[in-house]
Amino acid sequence: MKKQKDKTYAFRVSSADLKKIKAKAKRANLTVTDYLTACALDKEITVIDGLDGVLSELKAQGRNLNQLTILSHQGRSYPSQIEKLTDAYGDIYAELKKIAGGGLMATFTRIKVKKQSCGRMLGALSYVLQGHKVGFDGGRVESGVNCLPYTSYLEMMTTKEKFKKTGDVCFYHFVQSFSEEEKITPWQANEVARELTEKLFPNYECVVATHNDTDNLHSHIIVNSVSFKDGKKLHLPPTSIQEMRQANDQICMAHGLSVLEPYDGRKKKRRLTPGEYRAAERGESWKFALIKAIEEALLYSTDKDSFIQNMEYEGYSVRWDHHKYILFTTPEGKSCRDRSLHDETYLKDNFERLFAYRAEHGFTPLTPEPPEGWLGQIEQTGCLTSDIISLGKNLESTANVPPAIPPQTWTDSKQRQREALKKLAQGHKLSGEQEQEYVQII
């Protein structure tokens, strides 16, 4: 029965691309509508986790490269920044190799299948269990967790039908890959993948199929989304892939395989760009005017409410409650979050710590900031109190050895950077050493 085309959908396309689409449709003896429909349907789209942070960092370093190129054309050179940029690209390359399976360890990635169905699950199982992919030395390098590979689809469907959960997300697909430099046999690779699967999905039916038909030895893991034990559906939040990779690293190390340093996807701390620095030098930076207003308000504020009030006196609005970040808005209408002000002192959590400290210990307006900084003062007081309590507990039992004093998170380096920012906010120039240390390409 011919489907009725009762819906209209418009999309934007360039003139050149439209011309190509029409030409291809004509060669296929199809209308443009039928050609696009045929191309779009039944195409499996996969998304590899772990790329978002890498791509974001790659874009940031691309901006760095552009900045350095502009500076070099102006006859100004920053050799230390070029070296750091080279190191940053090296880190990105290592992470991409890790995600792609070309690193020095077993990588673990999730393949997202957006169009889910039981038929898709059968297709995935059929693909990973192909004989020419899993065949090795006359055998098949495959194993099952809570099921047999040969009957896995029937067993998984039996579980789904038993608990009446045959829709929505039907299965999960993961790949564990090894570098060609790693000396490991297909059987060993399958054992490592099976052990990882048993740890991650103990109550679910899974198939582990190791492929050796490419340069990189890798194992596919297909996981039923419904538990054969209690019928619970497996739900994996976006952050779960990091936990899985930690388990992957632990098992690899237990088998004597090498691992890379963990990558959390976070950008390195943002420093001043040359543009920001030059604007601050000229007194034209609205952001440094904001920093100056915050510093002046801190000298008069005993708590959050008085701080907001003092900022409002200067024409700034402050959005504080019910949000993760503080949002400052300048009198000209420019907005800036606390995390974009180059100093951890201005973060919401640290402001709340500071005002709690002032409420407990008292604060006299116009008291100058101590040499160790507001946060350094809080940590020194906190460390002293905790050390005294710890010493008292350990003296009660001479058999206990007092633990080492934990390192402080507010360092001299951070305080030096804070003093440099305050200096800029007051309209003063930095020394050559300060500029070299704190004015960096993003």
Model description:
The structure is a single chain. The chain has 442 residues and is α+β, with helices and mostly antiparallel strands. It folds into three domains: 57-100, no CATH class; 107-254, BirA Bifunctional Protein, domain 2 (2-Layer Sandwich); 274-385 and 409-438, no CATH class. It is built from 16 helices and eleven strands. The protein has a six-stranded antiparallel beta sheet with strand order 1-2-6-8-7-5, with helices on both faces. Helix 3 packs antiparallel against helix 4 (79-100), helix 8 (186-200) packs across helix 9 (240-254) and helix 11 crosses helix 15 (412-425). The relative contact order is 0.08. Residues 263-269, 384-390 and 397-408 have low confidence and may be disordered.
Can you lay out the helices and strands and say which pair or pack?
Layout (H helix, E strand, L loop, with lengths): L14 H13 L4 H9 L5 E3 L2 H23 L5 H22 L6 E7 L4 H11 L2 H4 E2 L2 E2 L1 E4 L6 H11 L8 E7 L8 H15 L5 E6 L6 E7 L15 H15 L19 H8 L4 H13 L5 H10 L3 E3 L7 E3 L5 E3 L10 H14 L12 H23 L15 H14 L6 H7 L4
Antiparallel strand pairs: 1-2, 2-6, 3-4, 5-7, 6-8, 7-8, 9-10, 10-11
Helix pairs in contact: 1-2, 3-4, 8-9, 11-12, 11-15
Features:
442 residues, alpha+beta, BirA Bifunctional Protein, domain 2, 3 domains, six-stranded antiparallel beta sheet, three-stranded antiparallel beta sheet, 16 helices, 11 strands, 48% helix, elongated
Order of helices and strands: HHEHHEHHEEEHEHEEHHHHEEEHHHH
What percentage of residues falls in helices of 4 or more residues? 40-55%
Structural class: alpha+beta
Q: What would CATH call the architecture of the largest domain?
A: 2-Layer Sandwich
Which stretches of 5+ consecutive residues score pLDDT under 50?
263-269, 384-390, 397-408
Summarize the biggest pleated sheet.
6 strands, antiparallel
By DSSP, the count of extended strands is 11
Number of helices: 16
What is the topology, as strand order, of the major beta sheet?
1-2-6-8-7-5
